[in-house]
Design a protein that fits this description.
heterodimer, A: 291 residues, alpha/beta, Rossmann fold, 2 domains, six-stranded mixed sheet, 11 helices, 10 strands, B: 265 residues, mainly alpha, 10 helices, 2 strands, 3% strand, flat
Chain lengths: 291, 265
């Protein structure tokens, strides 16, 4: 079942003025229920503009965007979309306003009109889901580290139990391990609750590990969309979009240029290591020896 | 917020007006103001209006953009127009209930509307065609004689510059927060005034915190690059008066002089 259908979407900023800028041009995209899709593209490619249509914050200049079966041009539908579509903005920790972590995470669920016992249970559950200790709920956000704050802010959206979760660069400015941790948590929740996840990223390494499909945007145009393995193997196209293919993909290409062909395309380093080990064992060659 | 050009926004177009020296643009605008305010002669005001319209056409920006950017102000202008029409005593032309419309009222408010429109147009030309940086440079140059009186003109210009630089940052930050909190269900548009004010907390608290931390970062960055108050500085872009600048300045002075003599006669 498609949950988001984008047809010939074009979005202009400042239409009809000298500052007019094409942010998106003729985008065709369908997102299916329960999938984990990554939107990749360099800065200014239109990723953020695209997803802001998905919960009705922006309206198409031309074309049509349907979310959960109804067009977002329908005002009533658009105004209720926040209940089902959670959007985690870039650097979401900047929007934290309360004096305790609990209050901030409870903000969204309370606005949904849930009673206080449900809210406090949800908040506790959500914090546990992303692997934060329960004691953190009483803490003052200003005393937390950047990575912790980021997770608290993401909890604020997750606690609303959205059907569709959109995350705009949730790992930006965080170290690799923390980034992986956050995404692994989200992946687990997605698998458990059947949530649809749309991840905006320019780190294809993250997309390779967690996404089922990848869409590549470049200067407002959708260059490619397909299963992760298929898209990420097109290194030429990724370079054209100003992106770097995952290290494992580059490694496999260098190896094939040197005459060593891996049985399949590795997407992560662990993948590559396993494939290489298999090859060494089946060919009975020792590292350092000639094949 | 994103799809509206606000008053005071610089719009690059590379027109002859854009290429004028910012100092002459600032002086010309300053000359238009008294010309508009002094004249009580329809001919004089028509002259100033035609001149302003000519500059608008030369600015390379579509008249529609001027119209659009001034739209929010029109509500204000119309309200003041209507109030003036209703509450100026004189020869009554029309009576609707307790409201009396007088000839004097119509004339007076018509004049006011005309004058303010010309002033707003002239100001828009200045801000549409001049970057904030150029404007402060021009201002600094104009105020530089005050340095003799030990008024820190350069520092004042720098302060204005920094304040202007923060305007778009503030807008972006506010937009992001508004959208982010709204997508968590914050409702800023309903309820009593008291409720609305308390509902602004999720918006105002992070806005202030973020702005302060940005200001601190900027101060640090300036300090790291050895910014010093009162140090002698050179410029990358040196301002220079050209033929077009002298032409614009003398034309504007001529118009002001004509308006003044017409009034004196």
């Amino acid at each position: 079942m498609p949950c988001i259908e984008v047809e010939e979407l074009t979005h202009l900023y400042y239409p009809g003025t000298p500052l007019e800028m094409v942010a998106l041009r003729d985008i065709e995209l369908t997102v299916y229920d329960g999938e984990f899709i990554a939107l990749a593209g360099s800065a200014g490619s239109g990723k953020s503009t695209l997803v802001q249509h998905f919960n009705g914050l922006l309206l198409p200049t031309a074309g049509c965007v349907k979310v959960l079966g109804r067009a977002i041009s329908d005002k009533q539908h658009r105004q209720q979309l926040w209940r089902q579509v959670g959007l985690v903005f870039q650097f979401p920790e900047r929007q934290i306003f309360s004096s305790t972590v609990f209050e901030d995470i409870a903000f969204g669920p309370r606005n949904l009109g849930w009673d206080s016992t449900t809210v406090s249970k949800l908040v506790k559950d959500t914090v546990a889901l992303v692997g934060l200790p329960e004691e953190i709920l009483a803490a003052d956000p200003r005393t937390l580290s950047g990575g912790m704050l980021r997770r608290v802010a993401i909890c604020g959206v997750l606690a609303m139990r959205p059907q569709i979760l959109i995350m705009d660069e949730p790992g930006a400015g965080l170290e690799h391990a923390t980034r992986q941790l956050i995404l692994a948590n989200i992946k687990e929740i997605q698998a458990r609750q059947g949530m649809t996840v749309i991840l905006i990223t320019h780190h294809l390494e993250d997309a390779a590990v967690f996404a089922e499909r990848v869409a590549v945007l470049h200067q407002g145009v959708l260059l490619s969309i397909g299963p992760t393995r298929e898209v990420l193997s097109q290194t030429e196209l990724l370079h054209r979009a100003g992106l770097k293919a995952p290290f494992a993909v580059e490694l496999a290409q260098q190896l094939s240029q040197a005459g060593i062909y891996l049985p399949s395309l590795p997407l992560s380093l662990a993948d590559a290591a396993q494939l290489l080990q298999q090859m060494l064992q089946t060919n009975r060659v020792r590292p350092g020896g000639t094949p | 917020m994103m799809n509206n050009i606000s008053m005071g926004q610089y719009l690059p177009a590379g027109s002859p007006v854009h290429r004028l020296d910012p100092r002459s643009k600032l002086i010309c605008t300053a000359l238009v103001v008294p010309a508009v305010l002094i004249t009580f002669n329809p001919l004089g005001l028509t002259l100033v209006s035609l001149w302003t319209l000519l500059v608008v056409l030369l600015s390379g920006i579509k008249p529609g953009v001027y119209w659009q950017s001034l739209k929010p102000l029109w509500v204000l202008l119309l309200i003041s127009f209507v109030l003036q029409v209703f509450f100026t005593p004189g020869n009554v032309l029309l009576t609707v209930g307790f409201i009396k419309i007088s000839r004097e009222g119509l004339l007076l408010s018509g004049w006011l509307l005309w004058r303010i429109s010309v002033l707003l147009l002239a100001a828009s030309v200045l801000t549409f065609t001049t970057t904030p940086l150029q404007l402060t440079m021009a201002l600094e140059w104009l105020l530089s004689p005050l340095r003799r009186l030990r008024i820190p003109v350069q520092e004042l210009a720098m302060m204005i510059n920094l304040a202007l630089r923060f305007v778009p940052t503030l807008f972006d930050e506010a937009r992001m927060l508004l959208l982010a909190q709204r997508s968590r269900g914050a409702d800023f548009n309903s309820g009593s005034i008291k409720e609305r004010v308390s509902r602004l907390t999720p918006f105002m608290v992070p806005l202030l915190t973020n702005i302060f931390s940005r200001a601190e970062e900027l101060a640090l960055a300036m300090e790291i690059r050895c910014y010093q108050v009162g140090a002698a500085r050179s410029r990358l872009h040196v301002m220079r008066f050209r033929v077009a600048d002298y032409a614009a300045l003398s034309l504007n002075t001529a118009i002001l002089a004509a308006v003044i003599t017409a009034k004196a006669l």
